[in-house]
Specification:
The complex is a heterodimer of chains A (136) and B (299). Chain A is of the alpha/beta class and 136 residues long. Chain A is built from five helices and five strands; from the N terminus they run E-E-H-E-H-E-H-E-H-H. In chain A, helix 1 links the parallel strand 2 (16-21) and strand 3. The chains are: A alpha/beta (136), B alpha/beta (299).
Chain lengths: 136, 299
C-alpha cells in the first residue's frame, strides 16, 4: 500500500497543513488519507488544514462524506479545515448529491484558503502557547 | 401503341421500368425545354393567383422561379438531386429572413409539378398507354424534387432557429464583473430549467475565472419563478459556496416572494436583499469596500 507514487501530499506550512489530492482516490485510499492527516495534526500541532481538491474532476458521495468527516475530526483535534479548489462541475455535482454546502468551509483556491484560515485562527505566536487556540 | 404490344410492358419489372424511364425522360425534358417560356409563364400566373411568395418583388419572383424551373428540369434530366439540394438550401437562406413560409415553398413546387403534369397530359392525351408510361416516369422524379425542396427548406429553417437559440442562450446569462471579486448576474426573462442550468454553469465558471468572493443574482427581470427553478437557485447558491463565493439574491418581486413561501421552497439559507442597489452595497460591505460620495459634486 505504501508503494507507488504519492496520491496525496501533506505539507506543513507554518501552523497549517496543506494536503493536495493529486488524483481520484478509491475508498481505501481515501480512508488512509484521512488517517494520515488526522494523525499529523497532533504531530505538527496544526491549527488549520487546507485540503486542495483542484485536481479532481469527480468527487463521489463517499469522497465528500470523508472530507466532511475530516473537517469534523480535525475540529475535535483543534484544527480548522478549509476545502479549496472545488471545480465548477464538482461543486454542482456535490450539491446535486445532496451535500450540505454549509457543512464545510470552502475557498476558491489555496491562496484564498490561507487568507481564510489566517482570519479565523489565532496568529502563530499565540498558537504556540495554546493548543486549543482556535476561535469560532 | 396497339393492343398487342401492351402485355410486354405490363410486367412491373424494375429493370424494364427504369429502361422505360431512361428512354422517356429525355423526351419529357426536351418537351419541357421547348415550351419553357410558356410553361413558366403559366406557372407564374398560378403562383400569383394562389397569392404565394408575396413577400418578394415581382422581379425577384421572376428570377427565382426561372431558376427553380431550370433546376427542376435538370433533375428530371440527370436524376441527381444534389444541385437542386444545394440551390434549395441557398434559396431558403435568402428567403427565410423575408418571412416566406414552408407552405409557400412547398406550394410553388407542387404548382410547378402540376403545371408540368398538365402539359404532359395535354401532349400525350391521344395515346393513353404512352401517357401512362410518361406519368410513371415523371411522377416519382417530381415527387423526389418536391421532397428535396421541402426538406432543404425545413433543414435550413431549423438551422436558423438553432443558431438563434444559441445566440439567445449566450446573451441571456451574462456574468458581469462590477468590482474586483464581485460579480453580478442579472436575469431577464423567463427562467426555464434549461436556462437555469446554463446560468449555474456560467456562474460557477465565472466565479473561477474572476476569482469572485461575492455574487449578486438580480431577478428583478424574471417574471416568474416556479418551484423547480427556485430549488435550482438554492443549489446554485450552495455550489457557489463550495467554490468559496457567497451569493446575494436581489429583486424578488412581491408575487415571486408570495409564490415561493406558499409553495414551501426553503429559502432560509439564501441571503436576499430587496433591490440591486441594496445587494451591491451589502456585497461591497462583505468584500470590505467602503464607498463615500465626494461632497459638492452633485447639486
Amino acid at each position: 500500500m505504501d508503494n507507488g507514487p504519492a496520491l496525496v501530499s501533506i505539507l506543513r506550512q507554518g501552523p497549517y497543513l496543506i494536503a493536495s489530492i493529486h488524483t481520484a482516490l478509491d475508498d481505501a485510499q481515501m480512508e488512509r488519507f484521512q488517517r494520515d492527516l488526522i494523525q499529523q495534526i497532533g504531530q505538527h500541532r496544526s491549527s488549520g488544514i487546507i485540503i486542495d481538491v483542484g485536481a479532481l474532476d469527480v468527487l463521489d458521495s463517499f469522497g465528500s462524506r470523508t472530507l466532511r468527516n475530516i473537517a469534523e475530526m480535525s475540529r475535535l483535534r483543534g484544527a480548522l479545515t478549509v476545502i479549496v479548489g472545488i471545480q465548477p462541475d464538482v461543486a454542482y455535482a456535490m450539491v446535486e448529491l445532496g451535500m450540505q454546502a454549509d457543512a464545510m468551509r470552502t475557498a476558491l483556491d489555496l491562496e484564498e484558503g490561507l487568507v481564510y484560515l489566517s482570519r479565523l485562527t489565532l496568529p502563530p505566536s499565540a498558537h504556540t502557547t495554546s493548543r486549543s487556540g482556535v476561535t469560532r | 401503341m396497339n393492343e398487342a404490344s401492351r402485355p410486354t410492358e405490363v410486367p412491373t419489372d424494375r429493370n424494364a421500368a427504369s429502361d422505360e424511364e431512361q428512354e422517356l425522360l429525355p423526351q419529357l425534358v426536351a418537351h419541357l425545354r421547348e415550351h419553357r417560356t410558356r410553361l413558366r409563364q403559366e406557372w407564374a400566373t398560378r403562383i400569383q393567383d394562389a397569392h404565394l411568395l408575396e413577400a418578394m418583388s415581382p422581379h425577384e419572383r421572376d428570377l427565382e422561379t426561372t431558376s427553380v424551373y431550370d433546376n427542376y428540369v435538370e433533375v428530371l434530366e440527370t436524376g441527381s438531386v444534389e444541385a437542386l439540394q444545394h440551390y434549395a438550401r441557398d434559396l431558403s437562406e435568402r428567403i427565410i429572413p423575408r418571412g416566406v413560409e414552408t407552405q409557400e415553398v412547398v406550394g410553388i413546387v407542387l404548382l410547378l409539378r402540376d403545371v408540368l403534369a398538365r402539359s404532359l397530359f395535354k401532349k400525350y392525351q391521344q395515346d393513353f398507354a404512352l401517357l401512362n408510361r410518361v406519368l410513371d416516369a415523371y411522377e416519382p422524379a417530381a415527387n423526389r424534387i418536391a421532397n428535396t425542396v421541402a426538406v432543404s427548406f425545413v433543414d435550413e429553417r431549423e438551422r436558423v432557429i438553432r443558431q438563434q437559440q444559441d445566440a439567445i442562450r449566450e446573451l441571456s446569462t451574462p456574468v458581469l464583473p462590477v468590482r474586483e471579486r464581485l460579480l453580478i448576474l442579472p436575469i431577464i426573462g423567463v427562467l426555464d430549467t434549461e436556462r437555469a442550468r446554463q446560468l449555474t454553469e456560467q456562474l460557477l465558471i465565472g466565479i473561477r475565472t474572476h476569482r469572485a468572493k461575492v455574487v449578486v443574482i438580480d431577478i428583478t427581470g424574471a417574471p416568474d419563478v416556479d418551484e423547480a427553478v427556485a430549488n435550482h437557485l438554492v443549489r446554485t447558491v450552495d455550489a457557489s459556496r463550495l467554490m468559496g463565493a457567497s451569493v446575494i439574491i436581489t429583486g424578488l418581486s412581491p408575487e415571486i416572494a408570495q409564490t415561493l413561501v406558499t409553495i414551501g421552497v426553503d429559502l432560509s439559507k439564501m441571503n436576499t436583499i430587496g433591490d440591486l442597489q441594496g445587494g451591491l452595497e451589502e456585497a461591497e460591505r462583505l468584500i470590505g469596500y467602503t464607498m463615500r460620495r465626494q461632497d459638492g459634486l452633485v447639486e
